[in-house]
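Thread: quick sanity check before group meeting

JM: Hey all, I'm pulling together slides for Thursday and realized we never actually wrote out the predicted structure for the chain we discussed last week. Dropping the sequence here so it's in one place. If anyone has concerns about the input, flag it before I start.
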Amino acid sequence: MQMTEHELLSTILKARKKVEEYEGFLSEAKEVKTNAEAALIEYMDNRELKSFKSSTLFCMVVRKETLYVSVEKDRKEEAMRWIEEDCGRSDMIKPTIHNRTLISFISQRLKKGEDIPQETFKYFFKPQLAITTAK
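JM (edit): ok, ran it. Output follows.
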């Protein structure tokens, strides 16, 4: 037996309401997760912990920093020229530079203490947690 247009519409409206509810729950859960992660990072920083093992929860926690890099919109050509000419890395330049390649390149330069033009590239380190659980 086929459903009528009213039954189909009713199904859609109920499903939309359920999706909206779940999205609200998901948003709340993400906020709790973000706040708890920030609090644990602060806790670890205050105690100068880079990692710790929880035998109670059977997991390992490692504090790490993820590098984020971007090129100022009006400075893309300048960035490409700097990478190609000043750094001698024309191998990185295709029609554009893949973001992962750029992050890796900037990360290597930072580790070596080499200069990066601040007016062209914006970068920052975001503290994060890597949590592995026993299976």
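AS: nice. The longest strand covers residues 59-71. Residues 1 and 75 are 63 Å apart (CA to CA).
JM: adding both to the slides.
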